[in-house]
Design a protein that fits this description.
Blueprint lengths: L1 H30 L19 H14 L3 H10 L4 H15 L13 H4 L2 H16 L6 E2 L2 E2 L32 E8 L3 E6 L5 E4 L3 E4 L5 H12 L10 E9 L2 E8 L5 E6 L4 H7 L7 E10 L2 E6 L1 H7 L12 E6 L2 E7 L5 E5 L5 H8 L11 E7 L2 E7 L14 E4 L9 E6 L5 E4 L6 H7 L12 E6 L5 E6 L1 H6 L11 E4 L10 E6 L5 E4 L6 H7 L7 E11 L12 E6 L21 E6 L8 E6 L5 E4 L7 H7 L13 E5 L8 H17 L4 H7 L3 E5 L2 H6 L14 E4 L5 E6 L5 E4 L6 H7 L13 E3 L5 E3 L1 E3 L2 E3 L8 E4 L10 H23 L1
Parallel strand pairs: 8-12, 13-17, 18-22, 23-27, 28-32, 33-39
Antiparallel strand pairs: 1-2, 3-4, 3-7, 5-6, 8-9, 10-11, 10-12, 13-14, 15-16, 15-17, 18-19, 20-21, 20-22, 23-24, 25-26, 25-27, 28-29, 30-31, 30-32, 33-34, 35-36, 35-39, 37-38
């Protein structure tokens, strides 16, 4: 047993080493393709080459000076089969088109990764995409019908090999047959037709099947099989089918975009070959495509029959068939209001009726009366006229041009009615039709129709329009009627369309002020009800109604409106007399605010108060001392000298922000004219700013001039005791400095490193903790610096830069001095 296991291991190791050596040898041989001898190209296994190796082969071909066609001819002379040549050509084209087919992995070569049908589609799409520009298929910007079919790169027009084998299919070299025997005998044969036309069945020898149909080959092979399977036809059965079809080569020449020889599978048709060749060129014909086989004409293909009717001799091709595309015969330009504008190719004898069929017919708005045909004839440009009766009789010729115009935008035997009717629109004009008939067809007048007057707009023979008036009321009553004419337009207006829109408006202290539609019998209380009722701030005893002066009898030019005043209760009731007052169109109702109504105004106390927080002002003139008393006074840590009042500015965006916005807009315009930038205006438009207060004096003398009256939004800020002083600006070391009682400003500047060279000492100032400021004073050249207190901020500004005098300024100054000297000299000499 142990010896058996050792023997098995040895066999597996030898097999593994042999497989690896075989694979490495093959790969090394293929990798040397860059050095292939092109004279031995027939020995190349194309299906096993990777994309990189194909690239090396392409480089080798280009460096040797061979063209692609010369290489294929050389391969034929060296004994390469057409299948090999076709496969090599497809791989080279795929590589040049950027299509990756085989990355060299062990999962298989070209054949295992892509079916023949997929190869055909890949080759066709890359060829059309690379070689045919769709714009080149147009003449004068107009397409040639049918040409764009061959330039569609997304068209999957393959000769599929997964379709059933057609009846009468002729076998040839490269076809692969499958023979199945089942029943008493079981056997399957895979038989390839070799170049000698034979298939070889084990124990039977060769059977010639090339050149006969699949049906005849089936009978012939089954008949021979009976020699080794005697039960066939008794207890066994046999069948022959095609597993893989052969590749044929078809030659496409003449007026095509890319003439040449193209590989197709044996189901390929004329259209397959034309598509591979990029279709006919711009000078090529789609109506006369000839197929030659063994030097004899076997079919003439008309592509129009295929495009329009799905018929035509799109025959299945055979190996070495020749397709010839002739130049076009007659080409006609057909454009305008047709469904498919294009150049159309017509054969001799075809008429305008045929052209109309090919184009899909007229559009709905096409003029179909007399149609002009511009023709080049006898060295002149002539014109032919056709109408519906001659569509099928006028034969069209090469160069004819036909333009189908659009019909005129006018109605015939038609009338219309507009306005206050139930069914406005266009209607047929019948013989003897009257105005009353049209109103009846339109389902009659609506309730708001203006029945005193209507208008008919009528167009004369010279297209001049005129108006005729009528009374809809009289027409309906049958007292007066009118005959209508073609293209009459009847207009019946609504009573609301003949006047301004009736609106009323309510403003002031109501919950939903605004504009409302006027309604009859509208009263003041009803309008207030529609506006959501009163606000809490409304003065219910003071409601005004302003009415326009509409009476022409009023001669007072100074009077702009009539004013009516009412007293109304909270339950929206008026006195008996006032309740009879009716709101009229365009009235303005104004509800005033109660002068004694006042919403709570809040201020805030923050910092070192005993009870900081929000407080409502009890009176309109309540002062700081009163609020401070209500806040319980100061804490033991409070620094009264540093207290400040923060107040909203006139630019604050609050309830009355419209005025603030207007002030900002006005000042911004002025500042812009004066050259101030945005940062300057932002500083000016601060919404809050601090006010310096003397809180110690306020506490000592309540109600004094220092005790300010508070406003809504004020913030009384009371800080703790400060222990530092800050120095900033033009000092050498801006910093916070410990406060020492009794020390002057120079001490703190020195502690900050002293003044900088650019410092403007005489303009130094101090900002105190409460928001107030004091500046330096000069007296007889002596500087008196302001007092410094805890929390203060010392600011040292910068000296303004001096501009040096320019040469022009010096010249001007010299001239001025010389002039003065001359004047003085003249005065002294007198």
């Amino acid at each position: 047993m142990k010896q058996l296991l050792m023997l098995s291991s040895l066999v597996m190791a030898i097999y593994s080493f042999s497989s690896q050596a075989q694979f490495s040898s093959k790969q090394m041989m293929q990798a040397s393709s860059a050095g292939i001898d092109l004279n031995n190209i027939a020995d190349l296994e194309v299906s096993e080459l990777s994309d990189d190796q194909i690239g090396m082969l392409v480089q080798k071909i280009e460096s040797s000076g061979y063209s692609e066609d010369q290489l294929m001819a050389l391969a034929r002379t060296r004994g390469a089969s057409e299948n090999q040549i076709s496969e090599l050509k497809s791989r080279i084209l795929a590589y040049k088109s950027g299509v990756r087919v085989n990355d060299g992995s062990e999962t298989g070569g070209f054949e295992s990764q892509m079916s023949k049908q997929e190869k055909e589609l890949m080759v066709r799409e890359s060829r059309v995409k690379e070689d045919v520009n769709p714009e080149s298929q147009k003449v004068g910007g107009l397409k040639v019908f049918g040409m764009d079919f061959f330039t569609q790169t997304d068209l999957k027009f393959g000769s599929g090999e997964d379709i059933p084998t057609p009846v009468g299919y002729v076998l040839g070299t490269g076809d692969l047959l499958t023979v199945e025997v089942w029943g008493a005998s079981e056997m399957t044969y895979q038989l390839e037709i070799y170049t000698d036309g034979n298939v070889r069945v084990p124990r039977l020898g060769p059977i010639h099947v090339s050149g006969i149909t699949i049906e005849d080959a089936k009978k012939k092979i089954i008949s021979r099989l009976k020699k080794i399977h005697s039960t066939i036809g008794k207890s066994s059965y046999a069948d022959v089918s095609i597993t893989q079809i052969k590749t044929i080569n078809v030659h496409v020449i003449g007026r095509v975009n890319k003439p040449g020889t193209y590989p197709l599978n044996s189901f390929g048709t004329v259209f397959n070959a034309l598509y591979d060749a990029g279709g006919p060129s711009i000078e090529g014909s789609l109506r006369k495509i000839e197929v030659f086989r063994d030097r004899e004409l076997v079919s003439t293909f008309d592509a129009y029959e295929y495009f329009i009717r799905g018929t035509g001799e799109n025959i299945t091709l055979r190996d070495q068939d020749v397709i010839i595309v002739k130049p076009y015969l007659n080409r006609v330009r057909f454009e305008g209001r047709v469904k498919n504008e294009a150049f159309y190719e017509l054969i001799n004898g075809e008429t305008f009726e045929d052209l109309l069929e090919y184009s899909g017919g007229f559009r709905k708005d096409a003029y179909q009366g007399s149609i002009g045909v511009m023709r080049y004839e006898d060295n002149y440009i002539t014109t032919k006229t056709i109408n519906e009766s001659s569509y099928g009789s006028l034969e069209l010729k090469n160069g004819d041009e036909i333009m189908i115009p659009k019909i005129a935008d006018e109605f015939r035997n038609s009338v219309s009615i507009e306005g206050a009717v139930f069914n406005p629109g266009f209607f047929q004009l019948t013989e003897g039709m009257k105005l009353s008939d049209l109103i009846e067809i339109a389902d009659g007048l609506r309730g708001e129709a203006f029945v005193k007057r209507g208008v008919i707009i009528r167009e004369g023979d010279n297209l001049m329009k005129s108006t005729l008036s009528f009374s809809p009321q009289e027409v309906i009553a049958g007292n007066k009627d009118m005959l209508l004419k073609s293209r009459d337009i009847v207009k019946i207006e609504s009573i609301y369309g003949l006047r301004d829109s009736y609106k009323i408006r309510i403003d002031g202290s109501v919950r939903a002020p605004g504009e409302f539609d006027y309604m009859k019998n509208m009263t003041v209380e009803n309008l207030i009800f529609l506006a959501g009722g009163f606000k809490e701030s409304a003065a219910k005893s003071f409601v005004e109604v302003a009415r326009r002066n509409l009476d022409d009898s009023i001669k007072d030019e100074n009077k702009s409106a009539e004013i009516y005043k009412f007293e109304i209760s909270s339950d929206l009731s008026l006195s008996d007399e006032d309740s009879k007052f009716e709101i009229m169109p365009f009235d303005r109702v104004l509800v005033r605010d109660n002068p004694y109504y006042q919403e709570q105004e809040l201020i805030k106390v923050e910092g070192e108060a005993l009870f900081p927080g929000l407080y409502s002002l009890e009176e309109k003139d309540e002062r700081i001392s009163s609020i401070l008393e209500r806040a319980g006074g100061l804490t033991s840590y409070a620094y009264a000298k540093g207290a400040t009042l923060i107040r909203r500015t006139e630019y604050f965006e609050g309830k009355d922000s419209e005025a603030a916005a207007m002030r900002r807009k006005d000042l911004s315009f002025r500042f812009k004219k004066e050259g101030l930038n945005d940062s300057d205006t932002l500083e000016l438009f601060r919404q809050q700013e601090s006010i310096g207060i003397e809180l110690e004096m306020i506490i000592q003398n309540p109600g004094s001039k220092h005790d300010l009256i508070l406003r809504e939004g004020d913030i009384l800020s009371i800080p703790r005791e400060f222990q530092t002083v800050r120095a900033r600006g033009e000092v050498l070391y801006p910093s916070n400095i410990h406060f020492i009682k009794g020390k002057k400003m120079k001490h703190y500047v020195a502690s900050a490193g002293g003044f900088d060279q650019k410092a403007k000492k005489s303009k130094s100032y101090v900002i105190y903790a409460n928001g107030s400021a004091a500046q330096t004073h000069n007296f007889l050249g002596v500087k008196f610096y302001p007092k410094v207190e805890p929390g203060a901020e010392i600011v040292v500004p910068t000296k303004p830069e001096r501009q040096p005098m320019t040469p022009q300024a010096w010249l001007t100054l010299g001239s001025s001095i010389a002039t003065i000297a001359l004047i003085v000299s003249q005065i002294l000499n007198q």
